[in-house]
């Protein structure tokens, strides 16, 4: 008997942890990993090697790493002074391929390889595609990466240099997903979707475990996350729940969800219609139909967080401000979180003198710099 299974996030039906199973067979809900056999449970050390985290592998030897995780946390004195809060950034662009996606990809590719998978399909606006391309190469897998033709050339070129097959789609981010799903169906290849794979969130959990040590076991009061599908957002929350279950923390941070006004299916409070989508500089969160939307909304309620939408001009403004004020060059998707921080403070969802952590999810070197 395996030490884990898949569980539907909506009807809670159990499913065998099969690489081909990405949706509940009963209600079509999304799936998560549930650990069921503590005697066989495999743990890895995270947070500087001080915390044990359960993982969906049968042995630590199955884990394929390129050195992801353990990213630094830096204070932001100028932004802290500006807003009268205690602001910190976790530098996720220091992961191997330049974004937080490496956390989830490392676990997903490791789990798929352990199950004998040799060829996969992924769709992405760029960062996840580059990450999956790198780790699948490391694992000896063939990867087909679907990405919008409109994605930054730097990201598309990064996907290609690792040796994956790049399928450029002349359409939106959602149309790119549709093209990948059609290819999966026609070719009968495993769909390694970072949006749907339960394994991916088991990797992004490491972020939550690390900040336990980053803040000397005192969690920040607020974490402000740019959200497209929510893989980092949900991974952080799952880590916090596991830490609380171990009685290592008592109080959970508020998890705030930031989206661009032009694509805000979560922050629009259920008034969203995909036909309302407009282009956004924050391509990493331009997901019109996030499959894990209900999960993100549930965490918002549980954590007491706020979902907020930000204007395009504000995103561009904060990309420049962050570089000029703090010496941090982030991609527009990350800048959206700082625009959101300003809105949350002005709206009094975050009070003065509270502590705030923002993940800088990707490097500005990977995107188009605004003129």
Question: Could you write a compact summary of the structure shown?
Answer:
The chain has 371 residues and is α/β, with parallel strands linked by helices.
The end-to-end span amounts to 57 Å
**Unreliable runs:** none
Overall geometry comes to: globular
What order do the SSEs take from the amino end to the carboxyl end, as H and E? EEEEEEHEHEHEHEHEHEHEHEHHE
CATH architecture type of the largest domain = 3-Layer(aba) Sandwich
Name the average pLDDT.
94
Helical percent range? 25-40%
Number of helices: 10
Total beta-strand segments: 15
CATH topology of the largest domain: the name is Rossmann fold
CATH class of the largest domain: Alpha Beta
Query: What structural category arises from helix and sheet content?
Result: alpha/beta
Overall tally of structural domains: 3
The proportion of strand residues reads 15-25%
Can you put this structure into words, describing what you see?
With 371 residues, the protein is α/β, with parallel strands linked by helices. It has three domains: 4-35; 73-98 and 200-366, Rossmann fold; 101-191, 3-Layer(aba) Sandwich (Rossmann fold), CATH 3.40.50. Helix content is 35%, strand content 19%. It has helices at residues 77-83, 101-114, 127-139, 153-161, 173-187, 198-214, 231-245, 293-303, 312-326, 332-346; strands spanning 4-8, 14-15, 31-35, 42-46, 51-55, 73-75, 86-91, 119-123, 142-148, 165-169, 190-191, 222-226, 254-260, 307-310, 355-360. A six-stranded mixed beta sheet has the order 6-7-15-12-13-14, with helices on both faces. Helix 2 crosses helix 6 and helix 9 (312-326) crosses helix 10 (332-346). The longest helix has 17 residues, at 198-214. The radius of gyration is 19 Å and the shape is globular. The termini are far apart. The mean pLDDT is 94.
């Amino acid at each position: 008997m395996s030490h884990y299974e898949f569980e539907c996030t909506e009807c809670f039906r159990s499913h065998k942890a099969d690489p081909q199973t990405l949706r509940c067979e009963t209600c079509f809900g999304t799936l998560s990993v549930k650990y069921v056999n503590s005697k066989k449970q495999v743990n890895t050390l995270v947070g500087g090697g001080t915390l044990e985290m359960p993982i969906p592998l049968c042995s630590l030897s199955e884990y394929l790493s390129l050195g992801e995780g353990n990213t630094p946390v830096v204070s932001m004195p100028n932004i802290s002074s500006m807003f009268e809060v205690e602001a910190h950034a976790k530098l996720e662009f220091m992961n191997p391929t330049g974004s937080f996606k490496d956390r989830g990809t490392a676990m997903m590719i490791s789990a798929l390889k352990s199950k004998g998978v040799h060829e996969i399909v992924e769709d992405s606006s760029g960062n996840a595609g580059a990450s999956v391309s790198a780790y699948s190469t490391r694992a000896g897998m063939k990867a087909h990466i679907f990405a919008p033709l409109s994605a930054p050339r730097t990201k598309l070129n990064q996907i290609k240099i690792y040796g994956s097959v790049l399928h450029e789609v002349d359409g939106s981010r959602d149309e790119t997903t549709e093209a990948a799903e059609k290819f999966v169906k026609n070719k009968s290849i495993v769909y390694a979707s970072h949006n749907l794979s339960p394994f991916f969130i088991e990797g992004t959990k490491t972020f939550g475990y690390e900040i336990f040590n980053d803040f000397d076991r005192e969690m920040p009061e607020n974490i402000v996350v740019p959200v497209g599908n929510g893989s980092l957002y949900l991974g952080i929350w799952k880590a916090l729940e596991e830490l609380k279950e171990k009685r290592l923390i008592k109080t959970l941070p508020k998890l705030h969800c930031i989206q661009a006004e032009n694509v805000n299916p979560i922050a629009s409070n259920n008034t969203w219609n995909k036909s309302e989508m407009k282009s956004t500089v924050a391509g990493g969160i331009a997901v019109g139909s996030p499959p894990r939307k209900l999960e993100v909304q549930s965490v918002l309620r549980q954590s007491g967080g706020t979902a907020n939408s930000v204007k395009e001009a504000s995103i561009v403004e904060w990309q420049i401000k962050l570089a000029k004020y703090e010496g941090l060059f982030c991609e527009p998707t990350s800048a959206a979180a700082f625009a959101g921080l300003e809105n949350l403070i002005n709206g009094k969802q975050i009070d003065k003198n509270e502590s705030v952590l923002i993940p800088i999810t990707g490097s500005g070197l990977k995107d188009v710099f605004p003129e």
